[in-house]
């Protein structure tokens, strides 16, 4: 049986469901409305990843990774 370390080899992390609910399908901007989430309200440890953007492979369990599509809409949210 393989060893699974939560947050390293598995998706999610504590609070990921809350962030997924808040962000999925929205765009990031300066203020909140029906289709936008304010960047200032993201955790201090976060990064926004666009398609084909380069990123480091270091693992930070408390860093929120927000993956956006070409149009800037949030498509995936995870910690790491």
Automatic annotation (TrEMBL):
InterPro entries according to UniProt: Prot_inh_I78
One Pfam family linked to the record: Inhibitor_I78
Biased composition (Basic and acidic residues): 57-70
Residue ranges, annotated region (Disordered): 51-80
Protein name as catalogued: Uncharacterized protein
């Amino acid at each position: 049986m393989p060893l699974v370390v939560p947050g390293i080899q598995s998706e999610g992390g504590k609070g990921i469901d809350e962030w997924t609910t808040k962000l999925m399908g929205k765009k990031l901007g300066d203020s909140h409305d029906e289709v936008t989430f304010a960047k200032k309200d993201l955790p201090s440890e976060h990064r926004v990843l666009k398609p084909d953007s380069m990123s480091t492979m270091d693992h930070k369990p408390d860093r929120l990774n927000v993956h956006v599509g070409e149009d800037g809409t949030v498509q995936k949210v995870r910690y790491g």
